[in-house]
Amino acid sequence: MSTFELISKHGDHEEVIFCHDKAVGLKAIIAIHNTTLGPALGGTRMWNYKSEEEALTDVLRLSKGMTYKAAASGLNLGGGKAVIIGDPKVLKSEALFRAFGQYINALNGKYITAEDVNTGVTDMEYVFMETPWVTGIPKGLGGSGDPSPYTAHGVLMGIKASVQEKLNTDSLKGLTIAVQGLGNVGSNLVKYLHDEGAKIKVADIDQQRVKKQVELFGAEAVSSESIVTTQCDVFAPCALGAVINDLTVGQLKCKIVAGGANNQLAEAKHGEVLRELGILYAPDYVINAGGLMNVFVELEGYSSDRAFEKTRRVYDNMMKVFKLAKELNVSTHVAADRIAEERIHTIGALKQKHQGKSSRLFTTLKEVENR
Ligand code: NAD
């Protein structure tokens, strides 16, 4: 498929930028999907893609996802993402990330980057040497550090909203919650759930991580093969994508699926199957937006308290999704998409009417530029 065919297949992206610097080995693609609500924010992924087509497909898909996540979360951000092509173990260097920073700088704040798979704080520090349009820089430089405690806190809020909706209670005390994956997000979530008095089941392919949560919080260890189908009130996927698929969906023994992992539904049809089975699904990009809320606060001048405060909004965002799903008689992931699209449409029309003048956003961007 040709480059332009691929771009038009994956949506109405505003801009796709190809970055090439032979001297430092940089081959990168920045995709800006939609900036109606604000600058396009999304991390930079570094991956040894098999082909340039695979890299382009990934960045187009991921940047569109960021538009929906920001919009459904009530943030004044658009959707964007970047990929750097190549083996991180071989290619990473100060020069490569500084060259990449130059490309970002040329976009004048239309795209703001952050860490993602295989990129970290040090890499973002190099980008920051060339441009202010980067988040996830070290705390000492005004950054927000590790986003996962905020993501996990948002997930907790989303679980509470789901429990309220499905089980008609705001308390997690005595409910059984099965957490799949005990990495950055999962381990923070277990701590929060323990504080709420939930009974916790845990699984990870890394047995050391399981042992730690059992010892610290009295969680019950479950094998990584059976966690998806274990009896529980809430199944919280915090590891891989596509965990709700043809094989697993009929075997679930939970009332709610609500966790931090990205792309939990293998295909959109699995959201419909969950609805038919009477299992409430908390759409992934709404429940796991706490990390994005955290970097948004970084743009305004970072405060951890304010970031935690913002993640509480996941509760209301989720309730809005459940309400609309009932009103329209559609599955929750369809309702989430509608909320995102409606907000982009409404705010877009408002901005057009007032000739794009948004003093609040302008101030925020000026603050970033002056860092
Ligand atoms: P992580 O790599 O720190 O943790 C993932 C954990 O899952 C690891 O401990 C790994 O061993 C475990 N795992 C892998 N395969 C498994 C399996 N089959 N069964 C059980 N456990 C398995 O990643 P993370 O930062 O905690 O992110 C977890 C998920 O949340 C990902 O899908 C990520 O995209 C999503 N997410 C993370 C953030 C964030 O702030 N870190 C924000 C939004 C979404």
Task: Please name the defining characteristics of this protein.
Rossmann fold, alpha/beta, 6-stranded parallel β-sheet, 14% strand, 15 helices, binds nicotinamide-adenine-dinucleotide, 6-stranded mixed β-sheet, 2 domains, 371 residues, single chain, 12 strands
| Small molecules bound in the structure, each named once | nicotinamide-adenine-dinucleotide
> What Rg is obtained from the alpha carbons, in whole angstroms?
20 Å
Q: What sequence of helices (H) and strands (E) makes up the elements? A: HEEEEHEHHEHHEHEHEEEHEHHHHHH
Number of domains: 2
- Name the poorly predicted regions: none
Strands, count: 12
Largest sheet: 6 strands, mixed
CATH class of the largest domain: Alpha Beta
The CATH architecture assignment of the largest domain turns out to be: 3-Layer(aba) Sandwich
Give the class from helix and strand content and strand pairing: alpha/beta
CATH superfamily of the largest domain: NAD(P)-binding Rossmann-like Domain
Task: Give the helix proportion (percent range).
Answer: 40-55%
- Percent strand: 5-15%
CATH topology of the largest domain: Rossmann fold
> What general form does the structure show?
globular
Which whole number gives the mean pLDDT?
A: 94
The number of helical segments is 15
Distance between the termini: 42 Å
